[in-house]
Protein: Uridylate kinase
Amino acid sequence: MAAPTFESEKVLVIFVLGGPGAGKGTQCERLVSQYGFVHLSAGDLLRAEQNRQGSQYGQLIADHIKEGKIVPQEITIALLRNAMDQAVASGGKTLAGHDVGPEHKDKWTGGKGRFLIDGFPRKMDQAVGFDETVCNSRFVLFLHCSEEVMLGRLLERGKTSGRADDNEESIKKRFRTFVETSMPVVDYYRKQDRVVEVDSQQDVAKVTEDIRKAMDQTFAKLGQAA
Ligand code: ADP
Ligand code: C5P
Ligand code: MG
Structure:
């Protein structure tokens, strides 16, 4: 089998998981500048591919997203690999126009990079496929939130998000997929003692503070400079 695209010693990958509306995107955005991460949301990459003129996967992605189903892993992994490639090759810039900034450039030289990958892996085959073909992840940040709170947040977000899946019917399907298909992935990493869990029902700033503390402790344990 071909070697993974990235060397795990050079490229730090942290997966950010949690139910729909747990606050993954919100928290990742708040963490990038402090740690020099590039934030990649699997869902955002899929929506961009869905809207890309000439994409052969547009309809398939749209159908899966509306039904809250997991898109076949080859598609999502290829999108992530491309986005990672692009960020590493450009020293920390993303296609979306984000740049990690001068204070973090040393973490992005000579093929190095550090990523928060949000909303991935959502199914066991994605976890295994990514490890084998892209690179090993370091740990998983898991944002814990009740369905009741997530439902309220998503209905509120749906008023302005324009997302085809921020409606009660799709949300219920997404919750089901999360419990049946995505929680087993979290449990798989838990068994390996690689899950850092934070309560994301608190206000946004407190969640960020708790994540920072938990991440700094984990980096110290792993011997990785934050
Ligand atoms: P996810 O990426 O996990 O689906 P988002 O980050 O998009 O979740 O958050 C879902 C919605 O909830 C957004 O409208 C966001 O502004 C809001 N939100 C996120 N975190 C919190 C929080 N801690 N308290 C209240 N609202 C939040
Ligand atoms: O993370 P987000 O809520 O943006 O994901 C939206 C949808 O994109 C999911 O409900 C699912 O249909 C699809 N998705 C996927 N595989 C992932 C991430 C998202 O199929 N790893
Ligand atoms: Mg999100």
Observations:
- The pocket of adenosine-5'-diphosphate (ligand 1) is lined by residues 18, 20-26, 153, 156-157, 200, 203-204, 207 (CB under 6 Å).
- Residues 11-222 form a domain with the Rossmann fold fold (CATH 3.40.50.300).
